[in-house]
């Protein structure tokens, strides 16, 4: 992620666990929030409320909250043992009362023999079983199988990984009951080099439904994002460009210009930054034109 984390705790939970395809367990660190240096906390002030992020001394995210008002908030807590995520809790408060139905606790256990296996159990705060995930990895640490069990049944997603002969292109395919769900093609500058392009194609009932293409510069910053949808025309699926975003950065790797296109509509937005004066050059105010909107941040560092 190159910009701020805008996903609420519960929505993030849904996207991670109830999308049609399975992915690896995701954790976040300060770089996901456009932060550098020994950041302890970051408070982001927006039109709809306040976002609050807390980090440990190794830069891992340990708390993320969206505060909509005095009595309404969504907070996710992350607990680690060394670098391993062992617990994640999502707490939603509405009118000052904990919503036990949408508040969730995720527990993770690890078994490294003969290959890595991770078990994730999800329980709501009203003590209802939500789901269990079993992740299996191969000898190289790549995720190869995810078994999801919930009240609807047991579902097995198989993941395959293939490299080309030069090891500059990797294809990862996801299958559910022999039906393709998603294919991700990652293209690297050279063997062992940085990612320069990523293509993620999704399928609906085995047919192509959408394609997302991302292009990165040598610093690993995303400079172009193109979304394509597939529509049926005369019984044939035809690709149609839906939207795109092109981004330019300054010397501090902050996005200073973004060009958005959707159909025939084209819009350019530019960002101006005020930095915090620290050696890490984190921004504390961003002004976006032509909207003339602004976002402010308060950053607290660990004391050395």
How would the global form be characterised? Answer: globular
How is the quaternary structure best described? single chain
Helix content: under 10%
Termini separation comes to 28 Å
The description of the largest β-sheet is: 20 strands, antiparallel, barrel
- How many β strands by DSSP? 21
Determine the structural class based on helices, strands and strand pairing: mainly beta
Return the average pLDDT rounded to an integer: 90
How much of the polypeptide forms β-strand, as a percent range? over 45%
What are the salient characteristics of this protein?
20-stranded antiparallel barrel; disordered N terminus; mainly beta; 304 residues; 1 helix
What is the topological layout?
Blueprint: H1 9-17, E1 39-45, E2 50-55, E3 61-67, E4 73-81, E5 84-94, E6 97-98, E7 104-111, E8 117-124, E9 129-137, E10 143-150, E11 153-163, E12 169-176, E13 179-188, E14 195-204, E15 207-216, E16 222-233, E17 236-249, E18 255-262, E19 265-275, E20 283-289, E21 293-301
Antiparallel strand pairs: 1-2, 1-21, 2-3, 3-4, 4-5, 5-6, 5-7, 7-8, 8-9, 9-10, 10-11, 11-12, 12-13, 13-14, 14-15, 15-16, 16-17, 17-18, 18-19, 19-20, 20-21
Structural summary, described in words:
There is one protein chain. With 304 residues, the protein is mainly beta. It has a domain at 164-249. Helices cover 3% and strands 61% of the residues. The chain has one helix and 21 strands. It has one helix at residues 9-17; strands spanning 39-45, 50-55, 61-67, 73-81, 84-94, 97-98, 104-111, 117-124, 129-137, 143-150, 153-163, 169-176, 179-188, 195-204, 207-216, 222-233, 236-249, 255-262, 265-275, 283-289, 293-301. The chain has a 20-stranded antiparallel β-barrel. The longest helix is centred in the N-terminal third of the chain and has 9 residues, at 9-17. The protein starts with 8 loop residues before the first helix and ends with a strand.
